[in-house]
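Project channel, design review

CF: Before we commit to the Litoreibacter roseus constructs, I'd like one complete example in the thread so the newer folks can see what an input/output pair looks like. Taking Ferredoxin.
RD: sounds good, go ahead.
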Amino acid sequence: MIISYVVTTACIDCKYENCFEVCPVDCFYEAANMIVINTEECIDCGVCEPECPVDVIKPDMIDVAGMWIALNQKFAEQWLDICQKGDPPADVDELGQKTDKLALLAEAPA
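CF: and here is what came back for Ferredoxin:
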């Protein structure tokens, strides 16, 4: 069984962007206020998970994994792959700790 990783909605308005820099297969995609993983491209190496300082990257075996896989894959197919690290918001530490931010998701590409 191949395991993939997913980005949870705690990433919304946070976007540290440390994760994509270590990804050996460039499976991260970016919207205006969130990053997702293309679960079909992810090779389950796990190097991205510890890079996120607010712990938003999870293996796809978490509770409600189906929802996270669907969300990540849907937007990975619509957004451009992330290729240049930007600066996180000034209040990134506070934003990263907030939960239940799905309503804040900006579906437009970055």
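RD: helpful, thanks. The first strand starts at residue 5 and ends at 7.
CF: Residues 65-76 form the longest helix (12 residues).
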